[in-house]
Amino acid sequence: MAPLVLITGASSGIGQAMAMSYSRLGYRLALVARRSQIIQSWLDDHAISPDNYAIYSADVADAQQMTSMAQACMTQQGLPDVVIANAGISMGVDTSVPDDLAVMARILMTNVMGVAATFGPFIAPMVARGSGTLVGIGSVAGIRGLPGHGGYCASKAAVISYCESLRGELRPSGVKVVTLCPGYIATPLTQNNQYAMPFLMQADVFANQAVQAIGAGISYRVIPWQMGVVAKLLRILPNPLFDRLFAGRPRKPRAMVS
User: Fold this and answer.
1) What pLDDT does 192 receive?
2) Residue 132 Rama label (left phi>0; alpha psi -120 to 50; beta)
3) According to the model, what pLDDT value does residue 191 have?
4) Is the pLDDT of residue 20 over 70?
5) Average pLDDT over residues 218-233
6) Torsion sign, CA atoms 136, 32, 110, 17
7) Is the pLDDT of residue 250 over 70?
């Protein structure tokens, strides 16, 4: 039987592009999103056989829904070979605005707890099997905090550290943990950014490189590589120089809270 990959946030952007890359490699697909009808329309448009996929409607921020989804996946399709926790949201926050604390909580719940809720139900079965790959989608934004991006940067820094911890925990079991940190990728998540996005990469190009890195079992990779160089430089910059460099940079648009 063909290997199985499960991808959250599969209704658009990186998740959709990675689903296509895996489909072309002959994988069966377990696709997870809140907007399941969008996934269905995309699959129909690309003439992907219903024999090769299943769609699961679930919100990664709801641990109970994710547990039910995982049980349904393992019953219907079997235990995945690769699980990619890709679902995420990005909004600017202003900590001085009381309503934005709720926005930040939503970002952290989706981007951090959603990764743990995605991985959790599959860990024990993968350990029992002695194989499997868990992939967390971090971000270059998780390497240093950017003004106006407090919620998103904090969430992606947490994903990077969480995956690193989990990798150490699972190392003796045969289960691999891979952390991928995209730079700027042309997706709905970045389309409203009002600032320069160096080395902007198309989602399908990112997906092909990401799938190669996952297949190679690489524990951590920044894509594109140029952003990896930038990230390392930013990490070693002294705080005063870093602060001056980003002074006046446009903020991520805030969510409109009613």
Assistant:
1) 61
2) left
3) 58
4) yes
5) 90
6) positive
7) no
CA 231 to chain centre: 18
Long-range CB contact pairs, 158-165, < 8 A, 24+: 158/108, 158/111, 158/112, 159/111, 159/112, 159/115, 160/136, 162/112, 162/115, 162/116, 162/136, 163/115, 163/134, 163/136, 163/138, 164/220
User: Residue 258's pLDDT is what?
Assistant: 31
Sign of CA dihedral 58, 27, 203, 227: positive
pLDDT band at 73 (very low <50, low <70, confident <90, very high): very high
Q: Are 36 and 57 in contact (CB under 8 A)?
A: yes
Conformational region of residue 109, where left means phi above 0, alpha means psi within -120 to 50, and beta covers everything else: alpha
Mean pLDDT, range 210-215, rounded to an integer = 97
Using an 8 Å Cβ cutoff, are 87 and 15 in contact?
Answer: yes
152 as an active site residue: the answer is yes
Domains along the chain with CATH numbers: 4-245 (3.40.50.720)
Say which of 22, 27, 53, 152 is annotated catalytic. Answer: 152
CA angle 133, 207, 83 (to 5 degrees): 25
Three-state DSSP at 82 gives: strand
CA distance 100 to 17: 31
**103, pLDDT greater than 90:** yes
